[in-house]
Fold this sequence. Notes:
The protein has helices spanning 32-42, 75-87, 137-144, 171-175, 181-191, 228-239; strands at residues 2-10, 19-24, 47-51, 60-65, 70-71, 97-102, 105-114, 117-123, 128-131, 155-158, 162-167, 195-201, 210-216, 221-224, 250-255, 263-269, 274-278, 280-289. By secondary structure, it is of the alpha+beta class. Strand 16 (263-269) and strand 17 form a beta hairpin.
Amino acid sequence: MKRRFKQVDVFTAVPYRGNPVAVVLDADGLATEDMQRIARWTNLSESTFVLPPTRAGADYRLRIFTPGAELPFAGHPTVGTAHAVIEAGIVSRGKKALIQECGAGLLPLTIEEVGDEQRIFVQVPEPALRPFPAECHGALRESLRADWDPSAPPQIVSVGAVWVIVQLRDDAALATLSPDLVAMTRLSNTLDVGGVTVFARLPKGGQDALKVRAFAPAHGIPEDPVCGSGNACVGAFLAHHPQFADLLPKYSASQGREIGRDGHVSVVAEKRLVRIGGPVVTCIDGMIDA
């Protein structure tokens, strides 16, 4: 059966600079095994499948798969799929607010005009933070091959997706980071987290306040080019540490340059509410046999 298919680039207005997500728009009737097989074949960090909603108020239902597993929520697939369903006419092009149904519940999205650019924002599930176990500090250092800024110790943050959040001392330390992905996989499995997201402040006066990198080898993703949920978890981390008050509530983060991308994530962060967003551009528009 032929189904509508798009591959869109998220957190960029320039094709091939952001984070791609594959979107199967007419996924009703596909079994879970079929979705997982397609996600494995696309070999992207995530592929999504659009289905009719099952809960009142939702505009559509979304299932999200990495090459190895299904996720209850992920940031760039949510933002990218919203762009795809609007472009495909599944929801009205004139709507400025959408409700997505997914494994993490009902999530509100907004479509905002920023100059000549359209940006799509999602309010992520309410963040939950917990201390990083002291007994795992050595394993984290082994994974990162680096140490963290002692002013803000690592934490585990969940927004549906769960990340270890680590602040490095500066942009140079972040840019040259070369983690041990085998050790990071062991640590991720031990802690039952998706991976490790690291960030550092950038010099004031530029477009972006932070630089971010995200590693999820336990999910088959050595480095995520521009990670929505990782950036959302960083935003929640910042909101719980007073030394970052000068960055909040709104800032922009850069991600992806170390692997040939140039994504920018807009973040609005408070302790109990985090929104992430950015532009999206379609790179492939066609059909898939599934």
